[in-house]
Amino acid sequence: MWTKTSCPSPLTVSLILKDVESLLHVDTDILFLQPVEEIWSILSLFNSTQLAAMALEHKDPRMAWYNSFARHPYYNKYFKNDMTSVPLQWEELLMPLLQKYKLNIIWGDQDLLNIIFHYNSESPYVFPCQWNYHLDHCIYGSNCLVAEREGVFILHDNRGVYHDDKQPAFRAIYEATQKVMSSSTIPDTCEFRPNGGEVWV
Questions:
Q1: pTM for the model
Q2: Can you tell me the distance from the alpha carbon of 96 to that of 16, in angstroms, rounded to the nearest whole number?
Q3: I need a surface site. Which of 27, 107, 150, 151 has the fewest CB within 10 A?
Q4: How far is CA 158 from the centre of its chain?
């Protein structure tokens, strides 16, 4: 299965790389504001039934896309994004679900994971919102209190907020990251606290 961007989905990659114990799959529109090793440590928190770590789409179900628009079963907490740990036994589930719901799937592998976890609610590990901080966490008020206390660890550019002027804090972090990555010295830490919209390097 290939996603709309012509990249293999994490579900397909897990079928191909069967001998790989763990796989970290993230969207291309995220910025790590903490060392990537920190996210790997989350995988060690899985219990024996958990197959993937995922962030909630929204704290408030009334504002969640899946609750309002999905035309297929979904995990009752409305996932937004995923990190997948391999090996996963998707072969038995993936193709039948894809065939059954192919006309109702909007978000590709994200929808398929929601369908799978609707029927296997013990399988996902839900990680805190600071690991997938996106516009919905701050546009209608503060919806990620742990990020206010501890900072944002991964910033997600859903809705193109890195490239417009609607959310200046998101764009400022993106531009600061570009500058840092193009310089010869990379700081040890970078912290973003959403309540003030400030970036500390």
A1: 0.72
A2: 18
A3: 150
A4: 10
